[in-house]
Amino acid sequence: MSNTFGKFFRVTTFGESHGKAMGCVVDGCPAGLALDPLDFGADMARRRPGQGKFSSPRKEMDEVEILSGVFEGVALGTPIALLVHNHDQKPQDYAALKDIFRPGHADFTHQAKYGIRDHRGGGRASGRETVARVAAGVIAKKILTQLDVSVSTHVYPPLDEEMLQHIVNEKDSLGSSVKCEIIGLKAGIGQPVFGKLSADLMGAIASIGGVRGVEISQGIKAATMRGSHHNPIDKGVLGGISDGEIITLQAHFKPPSSIGIGGRHDAIIAPRAAVVVEAMAALVVVDHIFASFSDTMDGVVRSYK
Amino acid sequence: MSNTFGKFFRVTTFGESHGKAMGCVVDGCPAGLALDPLDFGADMARRRPGQGKFSSPRKEMDEVEILSGVFEGVALGTPIALLVHNHDQKPQDYAALKDIFRPGHADFTHQAKYGIRDHRGGGRASGRETVARVAAGVIAKKILTQLDVSVSTHVYPPLDEEMLQHIVNEKDSLGSSVKCEIIGLKAGIGQPVFGKLSADLMGAIASIGGVRGVEISQGIKAATMRGSHHNPIDKGVLGGISDGEIITLQAHFKPPSSIGIGGRHDAIIAPRAAVVVEAMAALVVVDHIFASFSDTMDGVVRSYK
Amino acid sequence: MSNTFGKFFRVTTFGESHGKAMGCVVDGCPAGLALDPLDFGADMARRRPGQGKFSSPRKEMDEVEILSGVFEGVALGTPIALLVHNHDQKPQDYAALKDIFRPGHADFTHQAKYGIRDHRGGGRASGRETVARVAAGVIAKKILTQLDVSVSTHVYPPLDEEMLQHIVNEKDSLGSSVKCEIIGLKAGIGQPVFGKLSADLMGAIASIGGVRGVEISQGIKAATMRGSHHNPIDKGVLGGISDGEIITLQAHFKPPSSIGIGGRHDAIIAPRAAVVVEAMAALVVVDHIFASFSDTMDGVVRSYK
Amino acid sequence: MSNTFGKFFRVTTFGESHGKAMGCVVDGCPAGLALDPLDFGADMARRRPGQGKFSSPRKEMDEVEILSGVFEGVALGTPIALLVHNHDQKPQDYAALKDIFRPGHADFTHQAKYGIRDHRGGGRASGRETVARVAAGVIAKKILTQLDVSVSTHVYPPLDEEMLQHIVNEKDSLGSSVKCEIIGLKAGIGQPVFGKLSADLMGAIASIGGVRGVEISQGIKAATMRGSHHNPIDKGVLGGISDGEIITLQAHFKPPSSIGIGGRHDAIIAPRAAVVVEAMAALVVVDHIFASFSDTMDGVVRSYK
Prior knowledge:
By secondary structure, the first copy, chain A, is α+β, with helices and mostly antiparallel strands. The first copy, chain A, contains eight helices and 13 strands. Helix content of chain A is 28%, strand content 19%.
């Protein structure tokens, strides 16, 4: 029952991979933000399958329709409902899977939880669920742009295409990682003790399917470092609050579970997931910025006037 | 402003390291749970400083006082307020720090955020804040015991005492790690897509001071594995929902920031933080179990009757 | 930014009166509940304009489309997105209103808040917003039916048709009231101290446009009664918790603001709002029932097993 | 499990009437607000029993102790824990009540819900619970003062002392009402559609023990008015958003349930509840003001810089 993300900038997502549509409702987008359906194109393309040789051949245009909250190209301050139709439903591909649980998939756990599942595909557990995250992330990034904050991601370490082709040939899959950088965020953003900026970023990224590890700043390496070496290079978030420096995170993905079988599947997660990591990081940062406006009495007086 | 953790089993903490007291309010503890001030002793002792040779010599008994919510040894269903007094306040140790920002500490970021800070110590950023987490964790673990679920932690990899002594002698500090195991949780617990059990566990553990990396199941290693190898050993949480197997997590801590100076400080975080990781994991699991009671119509009818 | 209602059974609504569509996402509907688009027909018809002689002639079929969360007629446990298209958009009716604030309407306050508004109509402040509430309420009532709890409403006191016709003739409008009864709810439902069942019911009903007063049990009359008379008849909710008796509420609506002008408007609110009151009450009751499953340790053990 | 109020300015209360202490944790108080234990004296005195001839003779000084969140008289931005000890516990007065349910009290419903209760008094259902609300309200009102917003209440209609004495003599009790005025709030505050300022005020006031009806603006009277008369006088909140005019509310209380018996009880609720209504209204207004800071992109940019 946890399909809403955020407290001040709230995103509620919906949609099964083989249902009619995916979508989300963004509640808390400030009025006055310019917003156009075309804004979503670039990020949706980055997430889209079928673009690289190691990605699922499932092809969807993934055009984002704005159902509400925008009037004459400008956000009204009311909830923005975004819809992406599922054009490429081929349930017959999955008919054979009705009565079996695919190893490593969420089929079994969904069935255990709900006593029912949409066997046509992963349902909500499908990577397609991230369409809605990416759409919401576009809005978050547009807000951040106006505050001179940027969030960017890339596959890291870079892929060895030769090895990857080898793995595809063997119908196997491979783990992967994404690095995320948040640049330009001013010092003072974060909500200790349970809403530390670091923790919320890590938790948000960990909510992306397939993540098995998340690091911030020096990451796991810090566990074997000495303070004298670590102190000077531990930047970005201190005590859960931004320090004005670049914030660096890394997300580690498992190899996709679908191997050795037909269907439309990726051999590796990171290339398409990078934009999803970016979206989640942007959602967290916007939420935390909005939360910070009542940090001080001076700030409250200034914001209210 | 984020000092409340959880949605169904809610913990609100308070207290600065050099103020009068630390404490928490636990809202949502089921009525009928037996609860005694002595229940807290063992875990508070595990968290207490001054017990090992690499820990801060600050000594506090950390007795937990129950202010409300318990009547004749039994939880009433009303909020349980727990109080731990700060007996060992020695602000004079910190007087010199009034106008300087300690490197690697949250002094600077707190000042940047609030324009004010309790310079007597870390305030809310102090490790002492975790007293309240541990106290709440005791209640969560008592509930889990009745459901035959256990949460345990240990320092891993184990410490090399010789090297650690060497580091203490040099007034330096060292990074460290804690492993956590959740045993006995039935399949079907977790709240996709933003409240995945894995993500909430990782985010909760990441909210502990000094955490720079969190892993679940095969962790970061998964990022370099092939699906054919990873699938069979990826257990505990699938699609954000428990599968009935043991859940394994690992938290990685930076080396403590306080080095080369006087005062009462730890040379390493993990030994005292293990019980905090345990507490946070227990809080998450209880919260998720309670959330699961309305997963199915059958469950709703059974629970309501 | 508060377009989500509920904590355990969560409804997020969206849509402006003259935009593409109204809708909602219901998060937390138990898996296994049977659900069909036809289930919504009766209640949507009760809310629909143009059915009585004192209602707005705006006619819309208000068919509810299920976009997600239901598979082969059964709820999956995933978010249920419901969509109702706005077919009858006639913005030209409102063109004259672009630069004026209609007296008694939310035009001015929306403009003051957001610096922008959808001048084509009330936007989110329009009564059409309640389409989504009613749709969500249908699901809540289906759940309650399985628990033998019913929620019903009617206009009370009843309307004097002759007087009402007189008011319509004068292009004026009239205030009105709706009575709500919740029958069959067992004792023990409610979440003191801030989530009392009475308070949440009253607050939820007060969130319907045009409500200026809400009463429970003996209501305002209680303020002039003596305890010896009031005690025996004060039933339904005591201390914020249900007592197993019938719960009675009354909502009081202002006269519609649109008077003396053209356009499509109601002369009275209650006849169409009754089903909205019913929906809000049902949402609250379901939310509170789900919250009650972890009230006692015995209940927790029983629900978990 | 709902002992936390507010989303941005959050108050968590605890304490049973005959336990050790009452208290609350205020999370989200802006840093820099001056705060002293003496600030609470006046409002605690207004709430205190034993001050008038129609009030319970239970006497407590109700001194508020600040446990955390304030350093050298200034709020740190961290959670502020407030404690009020229960000095005047006389459980023997209530011993006879162990096995009986007092008519009109919450004894029965608490027992039905939790299977256990603190029979020494009302526990959380006691009017003493409001001590914590009043304490938190003091902080909220100090914030509002800096924004030139005031919240005030008085008993209305005024009491007829002669009749009241007559009722006390007969060991009976009487219903009563409190009027609340919010003055100086600028236009644009409120969070449609589920967090309308009107609805949140009404719901918050309805959460005070004994409330059976709540009105805003013209209140119930509006239900019998014509639009032509009502429109011009319907001020304060339109469409759930403040319009810059005075906001008027009225709360209607039942007669106290305790009649015809010994013990320490009030014959009427309003005189002591007025300050509680004031507190709840102030909490809502502060919460809504903080929520409004991200209403517009211009506001976001201004607040962030």
